[in-house]
Amino acid sequence: MPSDQFRFHISAAAQALGLKAVCFVIEGVRNQQTDPGFETLKAQTLAQVSKDLSSEAIQTDPILSGFRALHDAIGRSNRKNVASPESLLKLVLQTGGLPQVNLLVDIYNLVSVRTRLSLGAHDLRAISGNVQLRLTDGSETFWPMGSDKPKVVSPGEYAYIDDGHNVLCRLEVRQCERTKISLDTTDGFFIVQGNPATPADSLHEAANELLALIKRFCGGQARMLSE
Fold first, then answer.
1. Is there a contact between 19 and 193 (Cβ–Cβ < 8 Å)?
2. Which of 116, 127, 191, 203 could form a disulfide with 120 if both were Cys (CB 3.0 to 4.6 A apart)?
C-alpha cells in the first residue's frame, strides 16, 4: 500500500479504556547502526534521566502507573506484562544504559525513557494494509519479536493489528518479528502511546521530539496520521 493511503484508527472500545496514541509515517529514512552525535545526546539524556531514578520512582510514577491500570482493566498480570517504558527504565537503573539496536530503534527508546510513554515503530513495507488499535478477538496472528514461533492471541487484549489480522504490538509490551525496524528500513510507522494518565499534549510533544530526532539523524519525509 502506498504510504499516502496508509491509515490508523483507534476503536471505540480501545478509546473507552483510555488508550490514546499519536502516530506518523516517515519515508526515505537512512537507518544505520549508530551515529556519534546521537551517542553524545544519548549519554547526556541518560545521565539526566538517571539523576532521580530509583525503584520507588519507577513504581510511583503516574504515567507508568497508568499502564499498569490499563493491564488491570483487561485482567492481565503486571508481573508478566511490563509496559515497554517501565522495562527500559529498569534497565537504565540496573545498567546505566540502553541496548544499542540500530539508530531508529535507539532514538525511540531514548525518547521513551525520557517521557515515560510507550514508543514503537514498524517497517511500513511489512504491514498489510491499515492499522487499528483495538481489542483482540483471538483470531489474530502474533509472532513476537525474537520468538521462533507464533503465540496464541487471547481475546480481550488491546493491540495494534493490521488488515491481515497480524498483531504488530501486543499491549505496549511486545512487538512482532515481521515488522521490526532493521538497517534496511526506509519507510516506518511510528507510534507514541499513552494511557488515561497522560494528557494529549504530552503525546504530541513526544511525537514532535521523536520526529525531530529522526529527521536530524536519519532524514526522511513525514506525515502525521489523524485519528
1. yes
2. 191
The candidate with the shortest Cα–Cα distance to 191, out of 35, 4, 6, is 6
Per the confidence metrics, is the pTM higher than 0.85?
yes
- Sequence-ordered list of residues with C-beta below 8 angstroms from that of 209, at least 6 positions apart, any chain: 111, 115
Strand order in the sheet with 188-194: 118-123, 188-194, 20-27, 221-225
DSSP 51-96: HT--HHHHHH-HHHHHHHHHHHHTT--TTT---HHHHHHHHHHHHS
Q: Kindly state the cell numbers that stand for 77.
A: 498480570
pLDDT tens-digit map of 18-40 = 999 999 999 999 999 999 999 99
| CA–CA–CA angle 68, 159, 210 (5° rounding) | 80
| Nine cell digits for residue 50 | 538517571
Strands (E) across 28-130 are located at 118-123
Contact 112, 119 (CB under 8 A): yes
Contact residues for 216 (Cβ-Cβ < 8 A; gap 6+): none
Q: How would you class 152 by CB atoms within 10 Å of its CB: exposed for 0-12, middle for 13-18, buried for 19 or more?
A: exposed
